[in-house]
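From the shared-data thread, chain only:
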Amino acid sequence: MSATLSVVEAASNAAQRGLRLITPLSEVAAANRQRDALYQLSEQLHRATSPQETYDAAMDAIESALACDRSAILLFDASGVMQFVASRGLSPDYRSAVTGHSPWQVGDTDATPIDVPDVANSDLGESLKQTVLGEGIHATAFIPLVSDGALIGKFMAYFREPYVFTRDDLSVSLVIARQLAFAIQRTRLDQQLREREAQLAQELAAARQLQELSIDMAGASDVPALYEKLLDAAQSIMHSDFASMQQFYPHLGHGELKLLGHRGFPAEAASFWAWVRADASSTCGVAMSQRERVIAADVFNTPYIVGTADELQFRQAGIRACQSTPLLSRSGDLVGMISTHWKECHEPSERELRMFDILARLAADLIERTRHEEEARRREERLRILTQLLTDVPWQARGDGAFGDLQLAWENFTGQSWDQYAGHGWFDAIHPDDRARVQGTWAAACFDSSGYECSARLWHAPSADYRRCLIRATPIRNEDGTVREWVGSCTDVGPVNLA
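Structure, as tokens:
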């Protein structure tokens, strides 16, 4: 009878204080419930294959074992802020309001459970207290999650009315916390392993692709097809939505990049970036000027792009992020640019950039080889033209028509020294009566970039007399159609009677 009275008395005291109290008659039921909850938790964690399944199993156990109304799990993010990863029965406004509130910090080694049996009469800050009460929470408990001695987060138990946390509640909470922390760490390790395996598979695929490209470049003569393969590899390695490759032409102004090929550009964007100067407001323009890789993780917040015509093209093309890597020859000269672009804000990883640099080396070698082959073809064309002209006095001039190099045959014929015929000084070797006509027709030919032919009297030093010569010249053009140089000849057709 006295035992019954003591129970009644205890219940009466608890009622007066407004707190729930577990009586001896309910302790057995509570112990059974907690035992079953822990058993179910162990089974569910063993079968869990995702973080969400782990969180659901833990919250089932928390709410069953502690007879609480709601629960939540929070973990430290990369910046050390405690963030909700799972919750039940909590409003979005509440989660947003209390995110970041935690009695512990990253690195704490002595975190212990904290219970708040009566929120209304607790020492929580007034603002936080009103937020908690406004969510209908009148008691709560903070249970730290520790893995390998490191605090990784906490779980929360919420009660609709004041509640005294018992010794048994504390014990079962610590068991749940240990199992949950272990499961979270295991899930993280499994995820890291899967990510590493996927990363290794991607690296292996990229390495094979680069190896195949290297083999193709060793023997293939179809350069445009190789450019296409390089663009495909660039997209694959960088996981990008767009890609582009350009060749550098140093003789155009202060240097310009010509678009060799692209992946994903709309026609208008391809036309806009067909030629890019060093002062362009784009990553490739800046990279060309600085001779180093440039990354714009968000082009719309990159100072040198904002408010420019390039920004408009990025928007219209759907490009939000890009990187441009200069292509350098083996001697360190800029020969081109290779870029990748993404539809969303993005910054490539160090691993991706390391693989991409190997691709850039292949691309630079291809462009350099192609450039040398083009130069060899120009020399062959120059010799062919000279041979066809059957010249007595072969000569070469710059694109503007001036002599820019030594002309030994000219010196031997006219007797002029380099200082005399350099630039446009060669006109002085033409008979005064023919000089103005030759100057005019030559200027017109240079302006029109057309072939040139005229007859004039040219001073012949060996005979100390003028000789009638047929002057002819043919323009050698760049890729963009501009004149790179002139190849010409003066053919002696006989003496001149000046009387």
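Residues 2-190 form a domain with the Beta-Lactamase fold (CATH 3.30.450.40).
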